[in-house]
Amino acid sequence: MTPVTQRPEAREVWTHRLVLVVAIGIGSLLVGVIFSSSVNAILPWDLSFWPFLLSAFSVFAVFAAPRGAALWHEAERRDEEASLARCLVSHAWDCGLRAENRRLVVCRLAQSPGGFTALVKIPRGLTTDHVMKADASLAASFEALSCRVTPSGRADLCEIRMLFSDPLGAVEWCDVPGRIGETHDGPAIWLPEHGNAVHLLIAGPTGCGKTSATLGLVATLCSEKSARFTFIDTKRTGFAQFTGGTRVNAVATDHTEALAILENVHAEMLRRFEILETHRAQNRLQLPPDVRFGPLYLVIDEVASLLAEDLPGEDPKSARERVRSSRAILANIARISRQVSVFLILNIQRPDISVLSSGELRDNITARLGFSLSATGREMLFGPEWRSLPMSGRPGHAHFQGQASDQLTPIPVVVPMVEPWRVREALGVHS
């Protein structure tokens, strides 16, 4: 199959350019000949050079002027998008996405750095699930790194995002929310989708890349325009710099603030359930646009510090009550919040039983990202069968498991080392 970067349809742009240049050149040449012949018949001037000058000037004026160049590039972009739309419909047909002898219809297609996004109408007889199950086949047909299919606001519409290249660490090129990193042989890895996303636990010792992995993930999640973030950083390792961001609801740096924020997030979760019940909707995409809420991500750096009971100067009884309340709120959020698009991203140095003692908290955080862990840590994170899993000690190198309940093999991944200023920019933090 011809690679996407050398699609035959892309040559249509150059064919149109050549035809247009020849047509304008010949037209202006004829006009110049007629004009010079008429002038030579009346006046004693030699204007034999005029047709060639007029022809060259016409071509230059049309394509070299800023407006002409803009029209040129706009025509090239439209032709390229039309080519991609034709390829998408053709590949979808080949992948079995047809019903009642009708194909998918591309309602809108927009190119983005490294790929494109298409809004597709599904013919009667097919559902969004049919298209979502064909994502791997579509990616293979395009010879792309990945294909991501998400439901749209209507039952007969879905969004298809295709990535041909994945420049790791470039936040402004992250078109698909939830990217973790990439495998050693190239393919990118994302958080698995069940309606929207899942909770994530990131574990590893100091200096392994946990914070960088979290920052990179937050940056990619910002490509979802309606996404909002709440940060809890009782270790004060850097999340305070996001205070005041347009995409940031709150940042807590001490335990009192953290408990208040947890209660606020829990209250927001219950409010969203009330909205769904009022409008008899199953998820946020079925809500009217004026009441539709976006994803809310609760990011907690070092959850063990949040649940610590031995803080200096704190009354032991108050500490136990704070930890009990925090643990209960986290467990309830992990249990039911995904339906209303509230998600957890938790960092922890060592995934031991003292922190994850709540079975519901541990079992409902289904996506796991582990760096250089001990045998006990690997067993706690991925399961007893992965106790002897060889793990790299290099920063940024980890293993990812999308669904712990499925007993999948943890996949080796490299996470992006994203600069903090890029994350601040994505979160709308103004210096």
Give helix and strand order, one letter per element, not per position. Answer: HHHEEHHEEEEEHEEHEHHEHEHEEH
- Into which percentage range does the β-strand content fall? 15-25%
**Order of neighbouring strands in the sheet with most strands:** 6-5-14-13-12-7-11-10-8-9
The whole-number mean of residue pLDDT values reads: 78
Uncertain parts? 1-14, 167-173
- The fourth-level CATH homologous superfamily of the largest domain is P-loop containing nucleotide triphosphate hydrolases
Text of the CATH class of the largest domain = Alpha Beta
Please count the beta strands (DSSP E, at least 2 residues each): 14
Oligomer: single chain
Assigned CATH architecture of the largest domain? 3-Layer(aba) Sandwich
Rounded radius of gyration (Å): 28 Å
CATH topology of the largest domain: Rossmann fold
Shape call: elongated
Measure the end-to-end span. 49 Å
Structural class, from secondary structure content? alpha/beta
| Percentage of residues assigned to helices | 40-55%
* Main pleated sheet: 10 strands, mixed
Count of spatially separate domains: 3
Contiguous helical run count: 12
